[in-house]
Amino acid sequence: MDQKKVAIVTGAGAGIGKAITIRLAKDGYVVVVNGRKSSNTFEVAKEIQDAGFECIGIVCDVSDEQQVDEMFAQVIQKYGRVDVLVNNAGVCPVRGLDEITSGKFEQTIRTNLFSMFYCSKKAAEYMKRQGGGRIINAGSQSSFRQNPQMIEYTTSKWAVRGFTRALAAALGPFNITVNSYCPGTVITQMQLKNAEEYSSMMGITVEEYFKVRFKEIPMGRAQTPEEIAAFVSYLASDDAKNITGQNIMLNGGHVMC
């Protein structure tokens, strides 16, 4: 990499987002760690800096367009460019229809979808001037199926699938690729919290829940955050420069299409 390229990763304070920032830093990118909580955001940024990589942390609620604009202004002022945007921020509430209020539904959609729109629109503005870039969105295997206990999440992830394809068509002429990675079961704090809720509904232990879950997966196991990060690294690389508009599942074969 002749010139240092800059990658922004949203929702990077833990789990998959953290793994992606670490991987991209190792790939040679200057990494911008974004999170909503200052403690997690700066902790991850410090970990990457202590490993000898260039990195900054920016606290920003990406569901707020003004905060997104301010984050990008800060990045451009410091580095002058944005080469990769990973829209990883998201929430995954588990609740039935009767528990969903209009406010809860809107907040999930704003976090999982509007944040992508705000960040992608701003990133594209700079990527067009630079002659290209990569936008990589967090989809899910829920982008391809339905879940009655995750109505908000499922709705948002189906929307991400369409957003990714439409944005890829719009930005292709500017040498900007847009793809989404669609994980299945990845053991993170978010996944463990959801597993606790599901196992409680089913009247079984968390361990029993995962045994049932893994039997549904041809590969027989969960994916790791590092495996997801490795694929994001590929999408960000020159090797993937002609791949765009794709929503690619990384789930051990749990859902196929």
Characterization of the model:
The protein is an alpha/beta fold and about 260 residues long. It has one domain: NAD(P)-binding Rossmann-like Domain (Rossmann fold), CATH 3.40.50.720. Helix content is about 50%, strand content about 15%. The protein contains eight helices and seven strands. The chain has helices at about 15-25, 40-50, 65-80, 100-130, 150-170, 190-200, 205-215, 225-235; strands at about 5-10, 30-35, 55-60, 85, 135-140, 175-185, 245-250. Strands 3-2-1-4-5-6-7 form a seven-stranded parallel β-sheet, with helices on both faces. Helix 3 (about 65-80) packs parallel to helix 4 (about 100-130), helix 4 packs parallel to helix 5 and helix 6 (about 190-200) packs across helix 7 (about 205-215). The longest helix is centred in the middle third of the chain and has 29 residues, at about 100-130. The radius of gyration is 18 Å and the shape is globular.
The figure for the number of domains is 1
Radius of gyration: 18 Å
Q: Level of helix content?
A: 40-55%
CATH class: Alpha Beta
The CATH topology is given as Rossmann fold
How much beta, percentage-wise? 5-15%
Tell me the number of helical segments per DSSP (H or I, 4 or more residues long): 8
Shape: globular
By secondary-structure content and strand pairing, the structural class works out as alpha/beta
Q: What is the N-to-C order of secondary-structure elements (H for helix, E for strand)?
A: EHEHEHEHEHEHHHE
Which segments are poorly predicted (pLDDT under 50) over 5 or more consecutive residues? Answer: none
The CA-CA distance between the termini, in Å, is: 35 Å
Known CATH architecture: 3-Layer(aba) Sandwich
Number of strands: 7
CATH superfamily: NAD(P)-binding Rossmann-like Domain
| Major β-sheet annotation | 7 strands, parallel
For the biggest β-sheet, the strand order reads 3-2-1-4-5-6-7
